[in-house]
Backbone:
């Protein structure tokens, strides 16, 4: 078990019984630039990397929920080709888009 973690037993609603989950209980500091650092143990456990997107929800005074969303740094962006025309620039590990894939998506899209 990672340091700073504790095990909690939670009720699973109407089902009889409980299950055990690991709940992180770690401290971080808000920087003068308004940034929070996620402890390295959590980043490693959840495979977080620079550029990952998060949603912050305020649930009450001093209480927040931080949730990873989207594809992080795998976003495509608009760029300019050598001839000056706009193009999409995608990460090297992005899936290849083929005409067959586009046809399949077109058929599946309502």
Residues:
């Amino acid at each position: 078990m990672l340091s700073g973690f504790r095990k909690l037993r939670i009720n699973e609603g109407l089902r009889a019984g409980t299950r055990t989950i690991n709940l992180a209980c770690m401290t971080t500091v808000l920087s003068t630039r308004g940034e929070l650092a996620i402890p390295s143990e959590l980043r490693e456990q959840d495979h977080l990397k620079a550029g990952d997107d998060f949603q912050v929800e305020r649930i009450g005074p001093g209480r927040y929920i931080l949730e990873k969303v989207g594809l992080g740094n795998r976003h495509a962006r608009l760029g300019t080709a050598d001839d000056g025309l706009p193009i999409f620039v995608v990460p090297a590990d992005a899936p290849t888009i083929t005409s067959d894939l586009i046809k399949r998506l077109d058929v599946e899209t309502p």
Observations:
- Residues 1-15 have pLDDT under 50 and may be disordered.
